[in-house]
Amino acid sequence: MVSVSNLTKQYGDYRLNISMEIPNGRIVGLVGKNGAGKSTTIKAILGLIKADSGSVTVFGKDVASLTGDDKRRIGVALSDSGFSSYLSAGDVAKILAKMYPGVNEKDFLNKCHRYGLTDPNKQIKNYSTGMKAKLRVLIALSHNADLLIMDEPTAGLDIEARNEILDILRGYLSENENRSILITSHIATDLEGLCDEIYLIHNGEVLLHEETDVILSDYAVIKVDEEGYEALDKRYILKSHRESYGYRCLTNERGFYRENYPGLTMEKGGIDDLILLMTGEK
């Protein structure tokens, strides 16, 4: 679906150098702290910025050569819906029906109603944060896109609104097994329950690419004092950080350390642990 190969972009002292793949039928999570390069990567995939070198292909074509029909196969949900806040969901439905062949106004409004946007005449500026977020996602899905690009779609939402958006995305992918989603989020639990694989980027580079199931099943955080750290077999330690009690270590072989160090203090790893330990955060 998407291939990013040795993409580089220089901004002053900051340099992005990314390679990644978004296969057909997969939900790919892109994680990293602010400034890591997530937004730049998304803009490059969408053709909004030109890379200094490397390549980005979408649907097998260089992103710069995508036709209008190709671009209509992409759905995007960024921080803004792209529609004036003085419009209503009814207005948006009319515009979408003119923009995309196959979009039915009534069907779009029915979906809006299903997810709590019950008044088609209410202006977007009067929506709650959750309503605006759901509208952005529904707009991105309205024309049956093959590729969805979602930048922080659940940011600032309560758990109920977040779960609704995640359910929308799961349902959308289940309708067509060839559809793909690229999603960024600072909420690890959203990604753990949604994504098939995770890319962790930091300072413009991919630090780690892993299947989500593997992260949840095989990764762990080990806590040891200095003596225990010196005695530890470090073959499967990805990162270690000095702490007041000794060391905090990230491993991708939880079973090895459980079997060979039965008294070891070990906590199940997750995406938050991955980000914090791999990027050196406290």
Describe the structure.
The strands form three sheets. The chain has a six-stranded mixed sheet with strand order 6-7-8-3-9-10, sandwiched between helices. The model has no long low-confidence stretch (mean pLDDT 92). By secondary structure, it is an alpha/beta fold. Helix 3 crosses helix 4 and helix 5 (129-141) runs parallel beside helix 6 (159-175). The chain is globular, with a radius of gyration of 21 Å. Strand 7 (147-151), helix 6 and strand 8 (180-184) form a beta-alpha-beta unit. It has helices at residues 38-45, 68-71, 89-99, 105-114, 129-141, 159-175, 188-192, 212-218, 226-231, 254-260, 271-279; strands at 2-11, 14-22, 27-31, 53-58, 61-62, 74-77, 147-151, 180-184, 197-202, 205-211, 220-224, 237-243, 246-251, 265-268.
